[in-house]
Amino acid sequence: MAGGISNSTSGNSYMDNAKMGKEHVKFLILLALAYAFDQMDLFTFSFVAPALTKHWGVSMEWIGVVNSVTFVGMLFGCWFGGWASDKYGRKKTFLFSVIIFSTFSILNGLSPNKEIFMVARTMTGFGVLSMVVVAMVYIVEILPAASRGKWQAISLATGLLSIPLLGQIAQILIPASPDGWRHVFYIGGSGFIILYLGTKWLKESPRWLITQGRYEEAEKVIQHFVPDVKVDMSVEIAAHKDTNAEKAQETSGLAMIKEVFGKKYLKKTTVLTNMVIFITVGYFIFFGWMPTLLNEYGFTMEDALWMSALVSFGSPIGNYIAAFFTDKGGRKVPIVVYSVAVGLLTIVFGTIKAPLIIVFVGFAVRVLMDGVFVLMWSYLAEAYPTHIRNSATGFIYSLGRIMTSAAMLLVPIIFKQFGYGVLFGVIGAMFLIVAVVTGIWGERTAGKSLEEIAVEAAEEAAPAKA
After folding, report:
1. What angle do CA 92, 94, 95 make, to 5 degrees?
2. Cα–Cα distance between 275 and 256 in angstroms, integer?
3. 79 burial class (0-12, 13-18, 19+ CB within 10 angstroms)?
4. pLDDT digits (tens, 9 = 90+) for 398-440
5. In what helix (H) or strand (E) does residue 343 lie, and over which residues does it extend?
6. What is the pLDDT, as a whole number, of residue 242?
7. If we measure between CA atoms, which residue out of 278, 458, 453, 460 comes closest to residue 383?
8. What is the pLDDT at residue 305?
9. What 8-state DSSP symbol labels residue 124?
10. Interatomic CA distance for residues 290 and 356, integer angstroms
């Protein structure tokens, strides 16, 4: 039924209509921890970069190259995470990704030279985004349809508490000694705790199991999440086993791309691609470069670090606030409102010179940018059917990373040729474009079952009957 949750007794409906229980909470705790270590690994370099400029004598151009290769690693991580999780399952791919980004975070701290450091950053980016792509889809497949956006935001917000914590630690450790920056990377390596907890707490996505024809396993997992309801999938098994087995075979990269850019999903894919590219590029230029840009703008390294650290407190707050709006307005309306606010405030940010006002406006931008980022995650992760959900999500998300990789090389050029204000004006314009495109062509998805969203897309693409 359009606009609501199906009353069918299919395996997926059990998950859509479930009440939040103990196992859901454990799942969210694990995801929040994973997001925490992911974000620490991701933003460590933004705090470390000014120190490397001082202690290794590196240039802004080299920092741009490191940022760029990190996003190249993320690009391949998106592809790998999407492909592997559709082929081998969400759980295995998630845990493997945790091993990768935790290992290479430690190797970043141990790097004896710039070349090894760059390789380690690339592989950290690979592991981080492989894990994130899986997590984005994992959470919408496990949680109830009516509140999955809210819980996605709360989980991410809890994990993002690690960013201001990292900022405070970096502010203490980095100026303390020439090797202080190395210890910041070691913190990210403690993400191995996720591997231990994940082997005990994580269950495979029942939606993925169903597409693989593994109904008995899916039934057990569903029962695990809804212990008070008798789960019986016998009718669904008899009616749909052959159909789902066929879909499970249609997950090659070429088949996925043809489907995503086919008539059924073309409008949706265009809106999502625009959104992912501009939000991702704008977000990571702003916060990935903020300490360095402030330093180059005339502030000391210590001042640039404390201002960036204070601004970073807006990250978890932004996601907690977004949790109250993400399931409203079909997901579309909050994305448009947030994007307009971010665009205007970012343009203003580029005109400010007073440190306290920079912190105040930067904090507001951080709150709103992180809010729209998590809204985008939910919107993207619920857009496509189960048999291509992770591959399609990973592919589109990777487009944002490859464009960010290129943009990172352009930042020093734009800054030196046109100045600080123009750079932030460009970022603001990106978010205003997102608001216009999403407002005109975006679809409403919040509160609907994942299967209902897929059916509506098929019906919209079907030719009208005479």
Report:
1. 70
2. 20
3. buried
4. 888 889 888 888 888 888 888 888 999 999 999 999 999 999 9
5. helix 332-349
6. 52
7. 453
8. 81
9. H
10. 15
The torsion region of residue 419 among left (phi > 0), alpha (psi -120 to 50) and beta comes to left
What is the spatial distance between Cα 403 and Cα 278, in angstroms, rounded to a whole number? 9
The DSSP-derived string for 345-359 is: HHHHHTT---HHHHH
Q: Could you tell me the pTM of the whole model?
A: 0.72
* C-alpha R_g of the chain: 22
SS3 8: coil
Q: Between the CA atoms of 408, 120, 155 and 289, what dihedral angle is there, to the nearest 10 degrees?
A: -30
Determine the Cα angle at 350 with ends 356 and 184, to 5°.
65
Give per-residue burial for 154-179: e unless 16+ CB within 10 Å, then b: bbbbbbbbbbbbbbebbbebbeeeee
Spatial contact of 287 and 278, defined as CB atoms under 8 Å apart: no
Domain ranges of the chain: 11-461
pLDDT confidence bin for 248, thresholds 50/70/90: very low
Among candidates 452, 431, 312, 449, which has minimal Cα distance to 375?
431
DSSP letters for 405-439: HHHHHHHHHHHHHH-HHHHHHHHHHHHHHHHHHHH
Distance CA 219, CA 226 (A): 10
Chosen CATH of 11-461 out of 3.40.50.20, 1.20.1250.20, 3.40.50.2300, 1.10.3660.10? 1.20.1250.20
3-state SS, residue 56 = coil
Q: Which of 390, 24, 36 is nearest to 228 (CA)?
A: 24
Alpha helices in 204-313 (DSSP H): 206-211, 215-225, 234-248, 253-260, 266-297, 301-311
Contact yes or no for 184/169 (Cβ under 8 A): yes
Mean pLDDT for the chain overall: 83
Local confidence band at 7 (pLDDT 50, 70, 90 cut-offs): very low
User: How many whole angstroms separate alpha carbon 112 and alpha carbon 257?
Assistant: 41
Residue type, 80: F
